[in-house]
Design brief:
- The protein is α+β, with helices and mostly antiparallel strands and 400 residues long.
- It has 10 helices and 21 strands.
- The strands form 4 sheets. A 10-stranded mixed β-sheet has the order 7-8-9-10-5-4-3-11-6-21, covered by helices on one side. It has a 7-stranded mixed β-sheet with strand order 12-18-17-20-13-14-15, with helices on one face. It has a two-stranded antiparallel sheet with strand order 1-2.
- The longest helix has 18 residues.
């Protein structure tokens, strides 16, 4: 009898542990070259936890892609895709909001993270490894995935995937919630912002050979002039050259600054610029055929490999309508209707057409060019800035 009571007491605890297990044992990232893999990275042998060899972890970090991070959620097929520098690195299933509490569609960023959060809207429900997208309560977090929309508006993730994603992101990471499956596409267009070359400041008088100040400077004496630089100094110069071709303080400051975000609204006829969640300036813009829709497009500047190379851009163009099958039932379409090899191929032609219709004042273009860098974004939309946009957020754009 005592054993039976003990078994009854232990069973609920085991069930709860299976639903919200002890997160740290899922600490390592997923394999970068196998984005569809969602297996635990740790195994247990003879009651002891088996950890990855240090060399394997080092190699994994070395192979991890670098560059801007984009998280794309598709409501239609209940999937999440993670892109790094325009490359797909992971995919997984999700569970989004039910029709009575739908997940909003639009453009967001990660504005806050909490490892052990609980809901202050729904009965103190656990939201482990929460990544907030709006101050009104929308977030990504670990939870139960029944195979169809089932949340109160949040995006539920598989447990191991939620932990891995939480470790990977930082505040400001782009989150795109789309009605259907979309992906970043390479795009080149002369209207996309180009980083303005920085002119090095004039050298001090003591650095100009032959000047009176140089004659008084010991560093300009002949003995010092013929002395060769040490290997450490040469290496430091090479690193500096890779970080900033012009090697000017202003260029280095720009590379270390938070990326800027530019938002062009057809509804308002204005351009807005934010940096590090703070408003910088806004400007009127001219839009050809202002009564015709532009669509909603998110352009993102990617990292470049070559020093001094022009910025490389990608674009995600948003579908404007939720598929009727999902609107009516709130359930995931049959597996046969979901592409297994990733998002369907598309073209950035609509995004280019939208850029061609926008005329930005030259002074605004120059101010943006002084700050644009990898990770910067340009959002073009028919809609205005959401009321969710505010202190501590990037631009939030909600689609109806």
């Amino acid at each position: 009898m005592l054993l039976a009571l003990l078994a009854v007491c232990i069973a609920p605890a085991q069930t709860a542990h299976a639903q919200y297990p002890f997160w740290p044992r899922y600490g390592s990232f997923w394999g970068w070259h196998a984005p569809l893999r969602h297996k635990h990275q740790h195994r247990h042998r003879h009651g002891r936890e088996h950890k990855e060899p240090r060399a394997a972890k080092t190699e994994q970090a070395r192979d991890a892609p670098r560059g801007p991070l984009q998280i794309v959620v598709s409501i239609a097929d209940q999937r999440i895709a993670v892109y790094r520098n325009g490359t797909l690195i992971a995919r997984s299933s999700v569970s989004t909001g039910v029709p009575r509490h739908p997940t909003p569609v639009g453009i967001f960023t990660v504005i806050g993270k909490h490892r052990w959060h609980r809901s202050n809207l729904y009965s103190d429900a656990p939201m482990p490894y929460m990544q907030r997208s709006t101050w009104s309560g929308i977030a990504l977090h670990a939870g139960v995935l029944p195979g169809y929309p089932a949340s109160h508006g949040c995006i539920r993730l598989k447990t191991d995937f939620a932990v891995q994603l939480w470790q990977l992101t930082r505040r400001g990471a782009r989150v795109i919630i789309a009605p259907d499956e979309v992906r970043p596409l390479e795009i080149a267009d002369p209207r996309l912002f180009a980083a303005k070359p920085k002119v090095p400041p004039d050298p001090p008088a003591s650095a100009v050979p032959g000047s009176p100040a140089a004659a008084m400077d010991p560093a300009m004496m002949p003995a010092a002039a013929v002395q060769s630089a040490s290997p450490l100094e040469v290496g430091a110069q090479q690193v500096s050259d890779r970080a900033a071709p012009a090697a000017s303080p202003s260029a280095i400051a720009r590379s270390n600054a938070a990326p800027i975000s530019v938002f062009v609204s057809r509804k308002l006829g204005r351009l807005f610029v934010r940096q590090g969640s703070a408003a910088l300036f806004d400007s009127p813009v001219s839009i050809k055929d202002p009564e015709e829709p532009l669509g909603t497009h998110v352009f993102t500047a990617m990292d470049v490999n070559d020093v001094g190379a022009a910025l490389r851009w990608t674009v995600v163009s948003m579908p404007e309508e939720l598929p009727r099958t999902l609107q009516a039932s709130g359930r995931r379409p049959p597996a046969s209707q979901i592409a297994k090899t990733g998002p369907a191929s598309s073209s950035p032609d609509k995004a280019r057409a939208a850029l061609d219709r926008i005329e930005i004042p030259q002074d605004a273009v120059e101010r943006i060019a002084e700050r644009v860098a990898p990770g910067s974004s340009l959002i073009v939309s028919d809609h205005g800035v959401s009321k969710e946009t505010g202190k501590g957020t990037d631009f939030i754009v909600l689609l109806p």
